[in-house]
Amino acid sequence: MIQVKHVASRLLMPAAMLVIVGGCTHAGSQGAAPTATPSTERLSVAAAPLPADASRVGVGSELAARLETPVADVLRFDQTPLDEVMESLRTQTGVNLFVNWRALEAAGVKRTTPITARLRNVPLAKALNVLLQDAGGSSVRLMYVADDNVITVSSRDDLETLNVVARAYDVRDLIISIPDYPAPRDTPSGVAEDAVAATPTKQQLIEQLVTLLQANIAPETWKVNGGTVGEIREINGTLVVTTAPAHQERVAALLEKLREQRAVQVTIEAHYLWRTPEQLPRDIRTALAADFGKDREAVTFLNDEQTQRLMKQPSARRNPRELARGDDDAEGLAHLTAPRLTLFNGQRAYVVVKSLHSFVGAYEPAADATTEPTPVMSQVAVGVTTDVQATLSSDRKYVTVALETVLSRLLDMKDVAYTLLPGHKDLLVQEPDVREHRVMTSLSIPNRATALVAGLAEADREGGGAGARLYILLKPTVLIHTPMPMAASR
């Protein structure tokens, strides 16, 4: 939606420049959390999150290699008792394999439980997972723990009770609220107060994070859910998690995923141009022609070469009175480049670049007949406000940009008689003539591509700027900061 508004109000001196940036972050400011050094006693060798039925804590290099080495070309068991299956694995691999038969039998799994499986060229770790799942069936969860060069097979309840560990995770970077910064609404006399959208408190973010972990990682094991071992406490931005080693790996993996999502940022670069359609390069003018004259903005996408040619085209200067106030101001209105905004994915922020123009807006009555009335100075702010929200697609190839741009210009400052003080007929005040363009649109732009949004022409045809239009160039760039591998302190 595009609006053009012509404002004249009684509210001239050279302007002071006002620049306001709201909610702006900088590329690279989102640093990765430092990696804690784990102790040598409990060293995880898993390069990826482990399945729920396996855990490797304190694994030596020899045992780690054997867990990843195929057991045999073909493993074939046909109604083979479980104890013979375990003995076969022990013989073929040479690992220290201990089976807690007392715990298994208490869970309902006997030595004679029949196992049927045929596996080809699978690592020992995968073979154990498959065979234990078959032994437990749908009612009993069996698992193994590799610790100090010994693989222990038992029931999940037994191992989680005996092998509970506490680890600390620094989550201070995950409990920082990223606020939205809606642009302030303009007034004829200046810029309104900043508006900051409500954001969750630190305590609320901690509670959300703890709830997320307890709902997605072995929910039945946490004490708050009726379990017997799992517990999470927060101390000064650090989560102290007490649970089984297998679940610790999943906690670390989920926290790392959350950091990966937060590490994504988007930079939006905007250019504002005044051009007549005739001043556009022919190929760009042709691409936009289908939408011109319709009740919507015209949009097309430019490659880098087209963008450079458009930027080098001569400017359509707007008004002779603007030229009389100086070439710099006229050029600034013909081609204004807004500062770049770098946002978190989904964040809203704004940039305001405005000039404050002072003028005589009223008079205070004289104290006595021998003195003159005192001029009362006012100000009018004109320039550009860019309010933008950037949301990245799941494949990180497109950015949905919700844009609201307000461009206001001071066309003239007229002298008018001030009639509110009887007896003073020669008093003059200034009346600013302000024109405002407002563009509100949403569009999906490929990463690093440039979209050209063409607005409506101005209604007036004064002073050689006939038919000039407002053109907005938008270019999003996705920034993905790769975090360092995270490890919990132990």
Describe the protein's architecture and organization:
- The chain is 22% helix and 39% strand.
- The chain starts with a strand and ends in a 10-residue tail after the last strand.
- The chain has 490 residues and is of the alpha+beta class.
- Residues 1-21, 23-53, 316-333 and 459-466 have low confidence and may be disordered.
- The protein contains 11 helices and 23 strands.
- It has a 6-stranded antiparallel sheet with strand order 1-21-20-19-18-2, with no helix packed on it.
- It has helices spanning 61-67, 82-93, 101-106, 124-136, 156-162, 202-216, 245-262, 282-289, 304-312, 320-324, 327-334, and strands spanning 2-8, 13-22, 54-56, 74-81, 97-99, 114-120, 142-147, 150-155, 165-170, 186-187, 190-191, 231-235, 238-243, 264-275, 298-302, 335-337, 341-344, 348-364, 374-392, 398-417, 428-446, 450-457, 469-480.
- The longest helix has 18 residues, at 245-262.
Structural class: alpha+beta
Assembly type of the shown chains? single chain
Strand order of the largest sheet: 1-21-20-19-18-2
Which descriptor suits the 3D outline?
Answer: elongated
Over the alpha carbons, how many angstroms does the gyration radius reach?
Answer: 35 Å
Main sheet specs: 6 strands, antiparallel
DSSP strand tally: 23
The helix count comes to 11
Unreliable stretches: 1-21, 23-53, 316-333, 459-466
Distance from N terminus to C terminus (CA atoms, Å) equals: 56 Å
Give the overall average pLDDT: 77
Helix percent reads: 10-25%
Strand-residue fraction? Answer: 35-45%
